[in-house]
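R.M. (postdoc): so does anyone remember the format we settled on? I'll just put the structure tokens first.
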């Protein structure tokens, strides 16, 4: 399957922002791009942004098979309230098991957690006692991959964020099986985080497309020198630096255009997604119009 998995050196480095921009760029290249965020913690906003950027009609349940309303690590959420597993919503096959679950479904529907798209019974929530199941997530990814020839998948947190007592984010990457693009901060502190992330991926034998620095503001010596240091220390490509621009939160076309001006990133994307012929310039006329962040809930994090 063609596509890429977008991970980050930490939480809040801009994985969703970059994933939205890449999804919109692939869409501008006339590719049938699909998106997925297998695990979401705290908000549906990232999943909504991904769906809007790619222009797909898949339900939120299909794009994010596991969700917890708690903005903490997935494994930590299983202990919220002193009851393991109650923090998660799992979208599985079959009807709800009891009236208590039906009541929670009605509450979710009234709160518009699904944007008015609950879908069929097999996409409605269940609350199983077991923690995250990687085979379940891989099957959900496979179903989306059958509809979309190219997939952009966003991870949760960093590589070692605990998913269960035995599994971490890097195990999810291996279960999905796509090459990885690492998103890192452009400023101070990114050298250690980035080099550790790359080393962990290389030890597992996971293919890496490269590292993209995000959020440069141009005010520090670290931002000016980090690219040269990383190029010296890494054996993988540095795909470029994306500047901090608030307009990206509202306009995915503008974000895609700036990403298309990073030649190393474009080269990596064409290799991962099977683009062999030159694509029309992103700035050319298109039937696509600038997309605002969905439902006015703020842009991707």
């Amino acid at each position: 399957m063609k596509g890429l998995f977008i991970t980050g050196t930490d939480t809040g480095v801009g994985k969703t922002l970059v994933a939205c921009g890449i999804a919109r760029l692939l869409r501008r290249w006339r590719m049938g791009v699909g998106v997925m965020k297998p695990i979401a913690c705290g908000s549906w906003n990232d999943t909504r942004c991904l769906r809007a950027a790619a222009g797909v009609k898949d339900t939120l349940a299909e794009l994010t098979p596991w969700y917890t309303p708690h903005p903490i690590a997935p494994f930590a959420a299983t202990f919220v309230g002193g009851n393991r597993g109650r923090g998660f919503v799992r979208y599985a096959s079959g009807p709800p098991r009891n009236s208590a679950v039906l009541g929670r479904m009605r509450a979710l529907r009234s709160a518009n957690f699904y944007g008015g798209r609950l879908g069929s019974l097999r996409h409605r929530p269940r609350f199983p006692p077991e923690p995250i199941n990687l085979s379940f997530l891989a099957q959900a990814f496979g179903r989306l991959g059958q509809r979309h020839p190219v997939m952009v998948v966003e991870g949760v947190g960093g590589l070692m964020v605990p998913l269960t007592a035995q599994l971490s984010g890097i195990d999810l990457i291996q279960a999905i099986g796509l090459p990885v693009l690492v998103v890192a901060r452009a400023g101070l502190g990114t050298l250690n985080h980035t080099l550790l992330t790359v080393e962990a991926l290389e030890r597992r034998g996971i293919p890496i497309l490269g590292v993209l620095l995000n959020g440069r503001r141009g005010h520090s010596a670290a931002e000016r020198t980090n690219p040269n240091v990383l190029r010296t220390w890494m054996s993988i490509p540095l795909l470029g630096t994306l500047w901090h621009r608030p307009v990206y939160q509202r306009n995915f076309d503008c974000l895609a255009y700036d990403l298309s001006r990073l030649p190393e990133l474009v080269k990596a994307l064409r290799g991962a997604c099977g683009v062999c012929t030159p694509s029309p310039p992103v700035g050319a006329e298109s039937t696509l119009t600038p997309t605002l962040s969905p439902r006015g809930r703020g842009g991707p994090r």
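R.M.: ...and that's the designed sequence above, right after the tokens. Also worth knowing: The chain has a mean pLDDT of 81. The beta strands are 2-8, 33-36, 39-41, 66-68, 89-91, 125-126, 150-154, 180-185, 208-216, 238-243.
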